[in-house]
Amino acid sequence: MEGDYSAAAERYTDSMRIGAAWYRAGEFERAAAAFGQRSSAQAHFNRGNALIMLGQYEQAIAAFALALEQRQDWQPAIENQTLARVRLARLAPAEDDAGGTGGRLEADEIVFDTTGRVNKSQAEQTVDADSGLTDTQLRELWLRRVATKPADFLRARFAVQFARQSEASQ
């Protein structure tokens, strides 16, 4: 049963261990909820990490702030909060002089491929618009497809850290 984090999460009674198991299983919503049951600095920090993986950067920033209220100068929390801020800033629309749309252009027309061409591809999987899936189910399907390896998260974190050190040395 080694490596079966979902089963472990179901058996644990401690919310921190449950959250850690859900996190390792890639169930970041469940992990964030489990960590949210505690109010320790470590729980807020772990919840912030789970929220980053969900792309909920504003909530992650707030979670890291709660962790830092209890443990000032906690470097991992400061760095992860900075990472969440950088990712949130990248989502912000660019300022522009042309129409105030923030650089976004609206689609002229939305066309669905009804030929089945995309479904024959091994690289893509499509879901019919009439599949009956809710927004939440579609998001969960998308999240299962997203690569959520800790190595990817750390690579992004170290890139931010390197960029900050480069700016500071200039």
Would you kindly provide a written description of the structure presented here, covering whatever features stand out?
This protein has a single domain, classed as Tetratricopeptide repeat domain (Serine Threonine Protein Phosphatase 5, Tetratricopeptide repeat). By secondary structure, the protein is mainly alpha-helical. Helix 1 packs antiparallel against helix 2, helix 5 runs antiparallel to helix 6 and helix 6 crosses helix 8. It is built from 8 helices and no strands. It is flat, with a radius of gyration of 20 Å. The mean pLDDT is 77.
Short description:
With 170 residues, the protein is mostly helical.
What percent of residues are in strands?
under 5%
Question: What pattern of helices and strands is seen along the backbone?
Answer: HHHHHHHH
Largest sheet: none
- CATH C-level category: Mainly Alpha
CATH topology: Serine Threonine Protein Phosphatase 5, Tetratricopeptide repeat
Q: Give the integer mean of the pLDDT values.
A: 77
Q: How many distinct helices?
A: 8
Report the principal-axis shape: flat
Rg from alpha-carbon coordinates: 20 Å
Structural class: mainly alpha
First-to-last CA distance: 51 Å
Q: Quickly count the domains.
A: 1
What descriptors fit this protein?
mainly alpha; Serine Threonine Protein Phosphatase 5, Tetratricopeptide repeat; flat
List the topology elements.
Layout: H1 5-11, H2 15-24, H3 28-35, H4 41-54, H5 57-70, H6 75-91, H7 135-145, H8 150-169
